[in-house]
Records
---
Amino acid sequence: MEIRFPPGFLWGAATASYQIEGGWNEEGRSPSVWDTFSKTPGNVLHGDTGDVAADHYHRYKEDIALIKDLGIPAYRFSFAWPRIIPGGIGQVNPKGLAFYDRLVDGLLEAGIQPFPTLYHWDLPQVLEDAGGWTSRQTAQYFADYAGIVVEHFSDRVTNWITINEPWVVSMLGYLMGVFAPGVKDLKAASYATHHLHLGHGLAVQAMRAAARQPLQIGVTLNLSFVEAASKSADDQKAAYLHDIFQNRLFLDPLLKGTYPQEAEKDLGFTFPAGYEKDIPMITTPTDFLGINNYSRNVVKYDASGWPFHYSHTNPTGNSYSEMWEMAPQGLYDLLIRLKRDYPLNAIYITENGTAVPDGVDADNRVRDSRRIQYLQDYIAAMHQAIQNGVPVKGYFVWSLMDNFEWNLGYSRRFGIVYIDYENDLKRIIKDSARWFSQTIKENGFKIKSYYAEPF
Ligand code: IFM
């Protein structure tokens, strides 16, 4: 059968500032929490840092040309707060804005739609020193920064994402301590969660006030469909709680104006006193929800689990990437569930992709057939969800190019373009990029049949 997407469906590729830019101390950029974290021994595999990364800061023209040659209509990138306001608040750095002027103008000249994110985790270190996301002030500072960036760019840019994956910031950054800033404290994570929501709401209002034309604004959440490992009551309860932790702690306040009760009762989160008063701000209307999805989560009760009494299982049946289970059914189930449970008019898949071992063959080709299979399966699952009424308006592959995969450094490659770290960071088009390019050209592809089971 032929899969064809609705007219106007937006295809894109995504990246993030710290993961590709490099130029870490150039033209006035201040250190971010990720500079500090990655330079602290033991935090990142092989001691890798984003100092140089893919050197996009200097090679953005070449990268724009790549996107254009591949016929990719939209590009999701993130602004680096420490480049634009090195002190976190106050003085704007004209050279920081100028870099993104060059990038945005270059994209527009190439006919590529910019789809930026304001915050993809590179908090200015100076703000972390003052409490980071555990401090209510940071929410306001983020909104101030958002207003400044929107004032400058909204004559040319209409689609905006406030925050990328607040779950990662609060849970990996402040609860589990495996991402910057490396804190392990449930109260800190609770406060960070609330202040990220608040920062998003304040930012949306600041952005609308600063906008030079009507904007489409959304937030991007990393969501996973959650299943219990068995029908036992304990496993069912574990799955219920994990769904709250992973998904509802973010979806419910933003889209329904409530925190799930169990977050406090069963998981031990403690939100700042008087948090209820922030709910109207947090639920400030947006235009779309961004979703990053890579896998599903299958969990079982586990008395010794940390930070909660459950653990993740590795189900059999699907294959695995270097990171996670490849589970396209999980994307289908997630999308159908979102439509059922939340008032959503527009969804963008703002990230989906996979890290599989790949390398350059003697003929200079990267034959990443497993990545192609993964993308095809997930895109087909998304198509099936659209056929069933889920309003998915666009899809961004993660990632345009191999990059700094946070605490795993450069050991994992998510790109559809290969970065040759050994040879002057040469860009090499992988087979998956050619496949994606063809998919965009045809606005779909052929498959034997859908494989997702009805939800
Ligand atoms: O590389 C990350 C990205 O920064 C956020 N979403 C998940 C990707 C893969 O882990």
---
Amino acid sequence: MIEGRVTCPPLYAVIDVDACAHSGHDALTVAAGFQRAGVSLLQIRGKSIGAAALFDLTRAVMTTGNARVIVNDRADVARLAHAGGVHVGQDDLPPSDARAIVGPEPWVGLSTHTLEQATQALEEPISYLAVGPVFDTGTKLTGYDAVGLDLVRRVVGLARPRGVPVVAIGGITLERAPRVLEAGADSVCVISDLLRGDAEARAGKFLAALGPNLRRS
Ligand code: 3NM
């Protein structure tokens, strides 16, 4: 069950603080560049930074454009920052608790890695459902093998009739991204491939390949 239907744009860019540091990028500069390129949905992921730094980065990103900004893991930070939502994983607060913290309007997203998890997720008060890792990824040790486009198709088959958008994540590159949308995903969620070279230019290439990224509700 969801609080209200949302529309996810084709590109959902994740600003991962560690991935930015490892590739020589400044997270805030990347976020500003993505928004200049036209990215309308961003996630701030800071596994190695504390809540205060995550809050500061979230607020700073929110001043660099008008993308919806989702905070990874921390519903408390999302609420205090008046962010656009929170994204939780299987080991974080359950979506119902995250929803209780952020309130009815901000988005609550949930990561899933199996058909069973996706089925259960659809009973939760989520705004969108993430499925992955679609392909092998070096960015996160998910503990799950690559699920492939077949699971994306099956999850879309479950979620679409319920009006829940599906976001695909894990190992998605500029080359692979169109195939992921063709499999039925509403969005591709990307970390490392957006940091290849000039991040703003790379985001522009993704948007050109995937279509418009207009911000909607
Ligand atoms: N979550 P990249 S895979 C953060 O399967 C994350 O839930 C995943 O990074 C999941 O685009 C992943 O560099 C890493 O592969 C995505």
---
Amino acid sequence: MNAPRPAYRGRFAPSPTGPLHFGSLIAAVASYCDARAAGGEWHVRIEDIDLPRARPGAERAIMSALERYGFAWDGPVVRQSERTAMYEDALDALRDRDDVYACACTRRELEAAPIGAGGERVYPGTCRDGVPANRSGRAARAWRLRVGASRMAWRDRLQGPQAQDLARDVGDFVVQRADGLFAYQLAVVVDDDAQGITDVVRGADLLAATGWQLEIRRLLGLAPVRHAHLPLVVEADGSKLSKSASAAAVAGLPPAQVLLQTLNLLQQQPPAELAQASTRQILDWATLHWQPARFTGLPKVPIAQQQGLEV
Ligand code: GLU
């Protein structure tokens, strides 16, 4: 078992698929201020679980951007690529309890499955009771989690009450891919627990993934965490601002100015006197005056509108 949890331990968990972009910076600022305002710790975890998607140099670019923006983090920076043994252990535990099963379906075979409210194809359960005879010769195996029939219900600090019917909207989902890579859903739960994280503050594009993650948490018998999903900032044409969208990397703009813009977007109303302040002074001001309740004026993001779980 892990050491007792502190009252608040937060984290920022960027994927090194490119330089820090504005959407990620918003998550960094909000998770940082929320943690520090509560007197808590703030950790940085590099989510390079999907190594084929990681870009060389992206981690360094993200870390130097965090420094430029005046962030100070607690403890060492953790990398998912170095934690495979922990994910193996978690998968073993799930396997021992028959909560996961081997799946031999190809992506192609699943193309006919309907897309659920979570934005992903709902697995039809083909291999749930054993790989059918006509597929048994295949070597590649993904591991899927058997999702319970019950509705997941939780309360998001910013988005309010949430409910998800995993069986209907998601189906049994992959926790280890056929190529051996662990799914983000499993890694994030194992990491948050191992790091003693109490509070997850991140973009609402991950709201739909929360139900999946809570299900893994429940099956592994892990301590609960609080969630706060930030409203998504969209580009002028309404499309999502994300690493893969056309959003320009924040590197290059004057950091203090970008921070003030971020705080304005988060409805924190930084005063004009901060115009000449340093990034550290701006973050200190934001921490001291942090009012997440002001987010309630921002649009709520229904789970059903979340398409794809890009991480
Ligand atoms: N790695 C994810 C991203 O960069 C964030 C995951 C999380 O905060 O749980 O979008």
